[in-house]
C-alpha cells in the first residue's frame, strides 16, 4: 500500500479521497508541481532534486491564485522526504504536490475558499526518450499568454492547452509538440522547455515568451555556461528550428531529451547532437549527487 500526504497527514492511499464537489476539480484552479528524486546505485541513496526550488515556485504560483496552506516550504520538504522513506522507495520517482480549493462549492473564483495540499509519489523512469531522439511537430495550438492563463503558473487548467498540443503530436505520429506563442515565436514543448543549438551557441526563448520558468532550464543554462558555451535568451522563429544544428527539450519529467526531427525535417544529421549529449551526461551525474559543484541541487533522503 502506498502512502500519500493528504489533509495534513500521511495516510494509506485508499484514505486519500476527495469529494466530486471539490471546487478546483470543476474549474482547473489547482496548482501543482512535478519534482523528481533519483536513486543512485553507487551511494545506495535517494537524492531529491531541487526540492526547495520546486516548493518555492509552488508558493509563488499559489500567491497568484490567492491560495494559502498551513504547511511552510520547510514542512513540505520534510514531508516529501518522509513520504519517500515511508514508501521505502529505491528507484527514480516523480513527486506530485497538488494544491486545490477543497470547498464543496460551485463558482469559479479565487476568494473565500480554503486551499489544501496533497503529495504523492510514483515510479518514473524516462518520461520521454532520452537516448535515440524524438520526433516533434509544431502545433497548430497557440500557447496561452499571461493575460489569459499565465504560462508562468503550473495551474491545472492551463494543461488543457498542453493536452491539445500533445494529442495533436501523437495523432500525427510524432512524440512531442512545440508550441508557438501569440506572436508566432517558439515558446516551449507541451510540458518541457526547449533549447536550440546554432553554431555552437545555445538559444532558448526568454521567460517573456510565454513559457514556464523551468527549473531544469535554469540548470541547463548553468551547465552549458560552465562547459564554456554561450547561452542566449531570445525569440526563436519557427524556421530556426528546422535549420538548427541541435534541438532538445528539458524538464523535470523530460530531463534532457534530444529532438531529431521536426515537421518531417531532420535536425542536424538526424541524430542526438554532440552538445546535447555532453549537457545530458553532466545533468545525469548532477541529479544523482555526483558533481561537487552542483551538490546544492540535490538533497540526500535519509
Ligand atoms: N514547461 C511546461 C509547460 C511544463 O509543464 C514543464 C514541466 N514542469 C516544463 C516546462 C519544465 O519545467 P521544470 O524544468 O521546472 O520541470
UniProtKB/TrEMBL annotation:
Return the EC number. 2.6.1.42
Cite the GO molecular-function annotations of the record.
L-isoleucine-2-oxoglutarate transaminase activity; L-leucine-2-oxoglutarate transaminase activity; L-valine-2-oxoglutarate transaminase activity
| Record's keyword terms, sorted | Amino-acid biosynthesis, Aminotransferase, Branched-chain amino acid biosynthesis, Pyridoxal phosphate, Transferase
From the record, give the transmembrane residue ranges: none
What's its top-level EC category? transferase
UniProt keyword Plastid present? no
UniProt pathway annotation: Amino-acid biosynthesis; L-valine biosynthesis; L-valine from pyruvate: step 4/4; Amino-acid biosynthesis; L-leucine biosynthesis; L-leucine from 3-methyl-2-oxobutanoate: step 4/4; Amino-acid biosynthesis; L-isoleucine biosynthesis; L-isoleucine from 2-oxobutanoate: step 4/4
Cofactor(s) required, per the database record: pyridoxal 5'-phosphate
Catalysis performed (reactions): L-leucine + 2-oxoglutarate = 4-methyl-2-oxopentanoate + L-glutamate; L-isoleucine + 2-oxoglutarate = (S)-3-methyl-2-oxopentanoate + L-glutamate; L-valine + 2-oxoglutarate = 3-methyl-2-oxobutanoate + L-glutamate
One of the protein's GO biological processes: L-leucine biosynthetic process
Q: Does the keyword RNA-binding apply?
A: no
Q: Which domain of life is it from?
A: Bacteria
Q: What the protein does?
A: Acts on leucine, isoleucine and valine.
Per the record, the similarity remark reads: Belongs to the class-IV pyridoxal-phosphate-dependent aminotransferase family.
UniProt-recorded name of the protein: Branched-chain-amino-acid aminotransferase
Q: What is the lineage of its organism?
A: Bacteria, Pseudomonadati, Aquificota, Aquificia, Aquificales
Amino acid at each position: 500500500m502506498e502512502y500519500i500526504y493528504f489533509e495534513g497527514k500521511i495516510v494509506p492511499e485508499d484514505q486519500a479521497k476527495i469529494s466530486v464537489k471539490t471546487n478546483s476539480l470543476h474549474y482547473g484552479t489547482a496548482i501543482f508541481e512535478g519534482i523528481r528524486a533519483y536513486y543512485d546505485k553507487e551511494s545506495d541513496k535517494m537524492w531529491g532534486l531541487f526540492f526547495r526550488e520546486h516548493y518555492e515556485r509552488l508558493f509563488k504560483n499559489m500567491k497568484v491564485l490567492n491560495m494559502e496552506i498551513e504547511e511552510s516550504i520547510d514542512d513540505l520538504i520534510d514531508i516529501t522526504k518522509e513520504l519517500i522513506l515511508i514508501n521505502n522507495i529505491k528507484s527514480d520517482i516523480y513527486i506530485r504536490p497538488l494544491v486545490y480549493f477543497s470547498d464543496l462549492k460551485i463558482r469559479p473564483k479565487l476568494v473565500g475558499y480554503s486551499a489544501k495540499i496533497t503529495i504523492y509519489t510514483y515510479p518514473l523512469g524516462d518520461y520521454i526518450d532520452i537516448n535515440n531522439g524524438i520526433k516533434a511537430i509544431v502545433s497548430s495550438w497557440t500557447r496561452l499568454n499571461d493575460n489569459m492563463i499565465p504560462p508562468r503558473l503550473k495551474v491545472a487548467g492551463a494543461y488543457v492547452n498542453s493536452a491539445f498540443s500533445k494529442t495533436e503530436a501523437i495523432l500525427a505520429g510524432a512524440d512531442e509538440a512545440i508550441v508557438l506563442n501569440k506572436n508566432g515565436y517558439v515558446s516551449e514543448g507541451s510540458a518541457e522547455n526547449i533549447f536550440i543549438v546554432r553554431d555552437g551557441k545555445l538559444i532558448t526563448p526568454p521567460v517573456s515568451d510565454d513559457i514556464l520558468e523551468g527549473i531544469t532550464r535554469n540548470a541547463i543554462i548553468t551547465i552549458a555556461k560552465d562547459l564554456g558555451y554561450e547561452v542566449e535568451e531570445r525569440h526563436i522563429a519557427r524556421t530556426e528550428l528546422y535549420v538548427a544544428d541541435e534541438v532538445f527539450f528539458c524538464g523535470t519529467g523530460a530531463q534532457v531529451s534530444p529532438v531529431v526531427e521536426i515537421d518531417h525535417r531532420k535536425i542536424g544529421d538526424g541524430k542526438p547532437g554532440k552538445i546535447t549529449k555532453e549537457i545530458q551526461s553532466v545533468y545525469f551525474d548532477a541529479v544523482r549527487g555526483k558533481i561537487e559543484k552542483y551538490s546544492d541541487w540535490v538533497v540526500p533522503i535519509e
